[in-house]
Amino acid sequence: MITLNQLNSFSDQEAFSKLEQCCVSNTWINKMVQSRPFSSENEMIKTAASIWYNDCTIEDFKDAFTGHPKIGNVDSLKEKFAHTAEWAGNEQSKVTEANIETIEALAKANEFYEDKFGYIFIVSASGKSAKEMLAIVNSRLNHNIEDEIHVAMNEQHKITVIRLAKLIEDLPKNADLSSHLTTHALDTSIGVPAKNMIITLKGLRNNHWKPMSVGITNADGRIPDVLPPGKLLIPGIYTMTFNTADYYKNNNQNGFYPEASIQFEVTDSSHYHIPLLINPFGYSTYRGS
């Protein structure tokens, strides 16, 4: 771990070596090195996002993906999820070790993903169980090649920021690492958070709704990191789609609405929270805080 002042004072070569631990895209690293000195941790986070989204190309995104180990076989997944309850911490109240059926299905899904898109499955996996990861990858396998890269690039930057927080001392304390957009689903029919629900954020691209981010609600029914820190939605209309069909199926319920799609308008950089209150035969929403 280093301080921000140390990063600012390092030679270009030293700074490159440190930032390479967070993201291996040469374009991103070089532009971060050139952007020094950073006046604050917040400025660094904003600059990191700006470079990633404004200066990097699809090839740069794919370059960054190569910095992650491939997880596509049963043995590696068994090792990764051997102690799910331990590393998931307090996010889930009843987490058990992943069973072999889930592990095998996740291994196959990883292979299908790489065959279809040409790069490994990229997801910010912190705090997610094997079952949750399986639901996410299966959802993203429905995307076409052009759309999926936009989801994967967001996940990559979430990972980059997590690693920056491990690299820079006191960064979480001195920088705003919150998401511009968050969501929360509550099942009012049984009075509990709607956990393990897939939610997709969509934006307009070429006048068509396109996926931007795919997440799954935690034990509290929340997705706190719909977007990476420093990434702001440009003003416009967006849609958040809640996969209620699979949620009801997984909870042995019959629901009338297979999905709930909520359109909302972003006008500024303030925080947007989109909650959903659901029951099998109705749903409602409001702008939360």
Helix count equals 12
Number of strands: 9
Percentage beta strand? 15-25%
The CATH C-level class name of the largest domain: Mainly Beta
Radius of gyration: 19 Å
Query: Which runs of at least 5 residues are low in confidence (pLDDT < 50)?
Result: 83-96
Note the run of SSEs as H and E: HHHHHHHHHHHEEEEEEHEEE
Quote the distance from N terminus to C terminus: 34 Å
State the helicity in percent bands. Answer: 40-55%
The CATH topology label of the largest domain is Immunoglobulin-like
Number of self-contained structural domains: 3
How would a crystallographer describe the biggest sheet?
5 strands, mixed
Mean pLDDT across all amino acids = 90
Which architecture of the largest domain per CATH?
Sandwich
Basic shape = globular
